[in-house]
Design brief:
single chain, about 220 residues, alpha/beta, Rossmann fold, 2 domains, six-stranded parallel beta sheet
């Protein structure tokens, strides 16, 4: 068995913001149909709130902004719609080629945090099941990152040990801490929401396409 390369999903293999905006599109289309509105202003309002205030109560604010009461449209239903929508997302350019190349020398395990149904929808939209050896959903084994249960589940599925492995991800508080607990190197991808956060790493790359060079620098690839 090849050594295992643990790959985070969100903001490592694709841009999580694209998933968020995809969900906003689904919600905007629903509200437009239900309340005789145009979808684009609804979508733009959600995006502006996200950029201005971050995540949290975005749907409440949009309903209020457009004069739609929560009695008419329960926020919980919009959250369910957002989580259950079919994502319109794609991996970062070059990821497909990178995974195919790495898979000849390493076992690839995507280890992802979040609601399993949501994460499975992302994996399906990205076509990752055919590109890696195993996908581990941390919350499905009651081990949200930085707990290592999701990584251990991947190792068990592959019949592998942590020797020679590495963790690749964007979040030092999740992926990085998990790597330390596993006793393996952490390769940090400086993308997405946590790009500005401090945190130690054994190697730092600006984008996932620099992964092979990082692996070589850590002598994990010849």
């Amino acid at each position: 068995m090849h050594p295992v390369l643990f790959l985070d999903l969100d903001d490592t293999l694709y841009l999580e913001r694209d998933y968020v905006l995809s969900g906003f599109r689904a919600v905007a289309d629903h509200l437009a149909a239900q309340f005789a509105q145009e979808p684009e202003p609804l979508f733009k309002a959600m995006e502006e709130i996200l950029d201005r205030e971050g995540r949290g109560r975005i749907f409440d604010r949009v309903l209020d902004q457009f004069g739609i009461s929560t009695d008419q449209q329960p926020v919980a239903d919009l959250v369910d719609l957002y989580r259950g929508h079919r994502p319109r997302i794609a991996c970062f350019p070059g990821v497909d080629t990178l995974l195919a190349h790495l898979r000849t020398r390493l076992a690839l395990a995507v280890v992802t945090d979040g609601l399993p149904a949501v994460q499975r929808a992302k994996v399906a939209a990205l076509g990752l099941e055919a590109q890696v050896d195993v996908i581990s959903y941390c919350w499905a084994v009651d081990a949200p990152k930085p707990e290592i249960g999701g990584y251990v589940a991947a190792l068990d599925a592959l019949g592998a040990s942590a020797q020679g492995c590495a963790v690749v991800g964007d979040n030092p508080a999740h992926d990085g801490v998990a790597a330390r607990q596993l006793g393996v190197p952490f390769i940090r991808v400086m993308q997405g929401r946590f790009a500005g956060d401090p945190g130690d790493a054994d190697a730092v790359i600006p984008a996932i396409t620099g992964l092979e060079d990082a692996l070589r620098s850590l002598e994990l690839l010849a």
